[in-house]
């Protein structure tokens, strides 16, 4: 990542996207940015999964990263957590 931030672009791939296009990518491994919404609010759907329920993100971290999560996430993943 540092090489890209320093200006190296020979391994960078870009996409020509238009408003409303759907993108699927692994954000933690993809350098990306978004533009400021013009007019309407931006709506994002973030999909994630784990193979071991013990590795689910804590309630506090989920709220810090995503702002909110579906109530079923908390009921399944963190039953008994205050």
Describe what you observe in this structure.
- The chain is mainly alpha-helical and 82 residues long.
- 23% of the residues lie in helices and 0% in strands.
- It contains 3 helices and no strands.
- The chain has helices spanning 2-5, 59-66, 71-77.
- It is extended.
- It starts with a helix and ends in a 5-residue tail after the last helix.
- The model has no long low-confidence stretch (mean pLDDT 77).
Following the backbone from N to C, one meets helices and strands in this order, namely HHH
Chain oligomer state: single chain
| Strand elements, count | 0
Strand content: under 5%
The residue fraction in helices comes out at 10-25%
Largest β sheet strand count, sense and barrel closure: none
Report, as a whole number of angstroms, the end-to-end distance.
38 Å
Radius of gyration, CA atoms, in whole angstroms = 17 Å
Average pLDDT level? 77
Give the count of helical stretches.
Answer: 3
Structural class: mainly alpha
Offer a few descriptive terms.
82 residues; mainly alpha; 23% helix
Fold topology:
Layout: H1 2-5, H2 59-66, H3 71-77
Short description:
The chain is mainly alpha-helical.
